[in-house]
Amino acid sequence: xxxxxxxxxxxxxxxxxxxLELSLALLIGALAAVGAQRExxxxxxxxxAEIEADNLKxxxxxxxxxxxxxxxELQSNLPVTKNGVNLAAGAAAGQNMQPTVANLIAxxxxxxxxxxxxxxxxxxxxxxxxxxxxxxxxxxACDITGLAYISQPILVRNSGADTNTVAIxxxxxxxxxxxxxxxxxxxxxxxxxxxxxxxxxxVAGNPAGLVGARFGxxxxxxxxxxxRNDLRDPNLLGPLTVAGATQLGGNLGVGxxxxxxxxxxxxxxxxxxxxxxxxxxTTLGALSTSGQLTSSADIGSSSVxxxxxxxxxxxxxxxxRAADCVTRVLVSNSGIxxxxxxxxxxxxxxxxxGVLQLNNGAGAALISASGSTxxxxxxxxxxxxxxxxxxxxxxxxxxxxxxxxxxxxxVCRSGTWRAAGLDQETAGSACAVNGQLSVASSGAALVxxxxxxxxxxxxxxxxxxxELYSGNGEGNVPAPSCGTGGVRDIxxxxxxxxxxxxxxxxxxxxxxxxxxxxxxTVQPVLTDSSGTGYLTSFGAExxxxxxxxxxxxxx
Length: 555
Fold this sequence. Notes:
Blueprint: H1 24-69, H2 71-75, E1 80-82, E2 85-87, H3 101-106, E3 126-133, E4 143-150, H4 165-175, E5 179-181, E6 189-192, E7 198-200, E8 211-217, H5 219-222, E9 299-301, E10 310-312, E11 318-321, E12 327-331, E13 335-339, E14 345-350, E15 355-359, E16 365-370, E17 376-378, E18 386-387, E19 399-402, E20 409-413, E21 416-419, E22 437-439, E23 445-449, E24 452-455, E25 463-472, E26 475-477, E27 487-494, E28 509-515, E29 520-527, E30 533-534, E31 546-554
Parallel strand pairs: 18-19
Antiparallel strand pairs: 1-2, 3-4, 4-8, 5-6, 5-8, 6-7, 9-10, 10-11, 11-12, 12-13, 13-14, 14-15, 15-16, 16-17, 19-20, 20-21, 22-23, 23-24, 25-31, 26-29, 27-31, 28-29, 29-30
Helix pairs in contact: 1-4
């Protein structure tokens, strides 16, 4: 669209300035686009804040469950153990007063796959601080207080250190009264909703914009009850009834009669200091001998008349039978057989030939492994070996799970681990089906385009638009955050043009000049025939020419 120049307007004592007519339709459209873009960004920010708040709530609840379960150990600053995870006493990361996200996942307090990365910060993670209060308290007199927080403040992107009050407000509303933040007027503390509580800022430098949520357990709540892992003697004065199994880790002292209606199993030695009186039937359940036991017949144990449930037979076989006397396990001098409750052979180990066979419910062999040939046959194979795609391998045809992509199977081909299912082709060679995928010898993906194999990476976009800006006259455009490997770039377009014939030489060429490598300075100028650019007229009035700019990240 060609724009008409402004008509010269005579002004007494001044030179006239000629400007082009504003392109109103283009300007209105650009402003509408900017408004829509800003609304999208705001909606995305609020949604990200809600997700961040939900993750912090999950993390805080995991810490609350941890302190509830190990309240007594934390009161006494003792090590804690769960699910094979041992946390030593101490306040360092990975110790009982500061369990890590990995610790909480392994101990079952956080779900597998819980991410430790913050959505609203560059490199923030979820951290915690657990303390015994008041200072100097001893064991059962201690309250356990804690703060779950994000290790970096939540700031406005590309603004330096401006606190992102919109995102923080959304998070505090989502989490509720247990949440708090450090504000610019009092950054040394985190203040809870409604100023209901405060906690010292745990991050060095006391940055404003830090968000956290408190948790903990008080003695006034727990000391009135006997609880799991309680270290105190409950000193119960009345009867105690236990409906389930009871396990004692120490000595059992009985001052009165002891009645056992079920089975009593003692793993340690039993010592009787008085008389043992048996008034009912007696069944020998254990046999202890310090010499050799020999027999010319079968030796076994039976709960069914005429059937030995477990027997060492005179021919050397060891047999285990079910209650209906069906043989379930047979160990002979030639191998081992395992059968189902209906007598169907499910697994066998042939000791003479070194063959392991697993059968289905009908007795048909599904898996067979030969120790003589080293051959494994099965209907379905799940590879448990992890390998790295592109790494060297030795045996062609071997299968492995891709360590970088769950569920992907790698196969050893030409001495290299490669993805299974894609043929190996050469870039530039002919292909038959446009859109078909393959892989080059280097491991790079190929795609069939115009009947030729080409590198898929060459057909992917390399520039991603990030933000849209507009202005009048000279202005600054902030640089986008492109991350590792990204290169910042900018494209500027004019919203209007103009010319100035109020002096000589006339300025009748319009340019938008950009300087800097991000952030950038944008200068919409009029130039004369020498190429010199001007932001103001011959009468020192600002041209204020309009422009738009789009920032990009190139990869």
